[in-house]
Structures are given as C-alpha cells and as structure tokens.
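quick one, 119 residues, struct below
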Amino acid sequence: MRGVAVQAVAALGVLTGLWIALSPSFITLQHGGGNSAVANLIAGLAVAAVGAASLAGPRGFAGLQFASALLGVWVILSPFILDARFSIAAPMYWSNIVSGGVLVVLALAGLASVRRAAR
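---
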C-alpha cells in the first residue's frame, strides 16, 4: 500500500513540474527579459523528469525524492535571485512559492513513504 502512496506523490510531483514549466505561458513572470521563463522551464522539466523516474519503481527512490525537495527549494528562491537582473512580477512570486512549497511537501511525504516501505 505504501508503494501506491509513493507513486501518487510522484505523479503529483510530475503535475507540479509541468505547471512550473508551463506557467510562463499563462502568467506574467517578469517585466523585461526572459530569464525567469527559462529558469521555470528548466526547473519544471527537471521536476517532471524526477517524478517520472520515481514512477518507474513501485517504491520510488529516496534520492529522487531528495532531489525533488532541492528543486522545490530552488523554485521558491528563484524569483528572489532573478529579481536582481529584471523586475519580477508578483504572479511569479506567488506561483513559484506555492509550487515550490507543494514540491517540498510532496518530496517529504514521498521520502517518509519510501523509508516506511523499505522497513
């Protein structure tokens, strides 16, 4: 049963990664420049790839869940870092903070499920 929980967490991680990658198409991220759109695209595709790799195994991989948590932290911090070059729009702050928070929570839940399933 815990393997199903890990796979559900990984699937939600894939969906969150796809939102991060596609969000520049739906919301204004930055006033001038395109580095935030590229950063979100790369981070989102990386998150989706990590989630897809976690789906490959029935119990998930603890290392992949940890990588997903690190990517979530990057998504949260990226608007503040990218704001140094061009002005970041408020929707990017909200989208990235919420999406990154969801990723961190999902990764921690997946890590907990992977550790319980390994016992």
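The helical segments are 2-26, 35-56, 62-82, 90-118.
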